[in-house]
Amino acid sequence: MKELTEEILKFNEDRGWGGNHDARSLAISVSLEASELLEHFQWISSEEAIQKDKQAIVEEAADVFIYLLQLANVLDIDLKEAVQQKLKKNAVKYPIPTNL
Ligand SMILES: [Mg+2]
Q: So which residues are the signal peptide here (predicted)?
């Protein structure tokens, strides 16, 4: 995760990007890229969307993650730790049903 973030930051730095990459702008960008991902599924089934252009879906998913990693960096969030903590919280909130 840290290596990926550094790679993204270097990519931006090499191009003179990132000056306006504050938390608000990055959070907006996560949402915008998620919408671009959703667009591929609009009006068609999952199967049709994947068959039509899986590569585009892959790239939009990557865009979401690229912005999320930058947001985590700006907010000093350890995403791996955050996910593990959230799963623990969710496990309490949504216990495994006993009737399964
Ligand atoms: Mg995109």
A: none
